[in-house]
Amino acid sequence: MIPDYAQPFFYQVPWRSASVHTGEHLGIQRGPGDEFSRHVSLVDYPDARRVDLRQTIRDPYEQIQVRVFKQEASSPLYAVCDLSSSMQFQGQLRKLDTVQAVAASIACSAHDNSDLFGMISYDQHVIPHLSLSPGHHAHQSFATIAELGDFRSARRDGSGVVEAAGLLGQQKGLVFWISDFHMPLSLIEHGLNLMANHQLIPIVLWDPLEYQRLPRFGFGNLQDPETGEQKTIFFRQAIRAQFVQMFEQRKQALDQLFARFEIRPLYVSGRFEAALLSDYFEQLIH
């Protein structure tokens, strides 16, 4: 059963899929489809249903010619989920709940388009029971995604993304890297290099309570983005401005890093809506 928080979105892959399985995308394999490829002799492609009489008459070697088409093919979609300590943050919403909603929408969209859905969750290491090999098993996908909300990780960083990237298949796919990216830029760059064979969509989860809606004056609790530890800080205007500036500088650094890989990130602040991803892909096309 598809959960209520799973909202499908529009997407399109800009390459020809090499998959032998039928789907909704342009492929390179010959087979049943609407896209004409070329003419070949009946000996090379023995399918009498596709005989082209006009081309046969024109053939100087008097061989029977048949039309060959390219079949539409499937493509894998992956949700790579960061479950490190910083992702335990709860502001307006729990970040883990947002991860759950994004992953469910990816799974729903993949299954609607006859594509494969896979998921890899990690903190310092890959988390096997919250990871799935690419497949068409909708029930298993949503059952595993439902367990994300119960996960707890204390004082664990996101270095497991290196291991996670190694589990992506060789076939090119859409990879949605869901994280707050509160990790060293060098680690993010390493992950980007390891996933360069795929089309990568970084989904950056930041909550307004992390940096925008801080106390103007007085004590407040903050969570360390790397260790997950709670810290009590006495806020005043200057301290508050420093936090806002820190996040602005971080966003600029992330944008510059992603731009080097010709990648455009999607920032999600607050509640996730699938329309954000539909708009993202619409802008990529135009």
UniProtKB/TrEMBL annotation:
InterPro entries: DUF58, vWFA_dom_sf. Pfam families: DUF58. SUPFAM superfamilies: vWA-like (SSF53300). Residues 47-250 form the DUF58 domain. PANTHER family: BLL2464 PROTEIN, POSSIBLE CONSERVED SECRETED PROTEIN. This is DUF58 domain-containing protein.
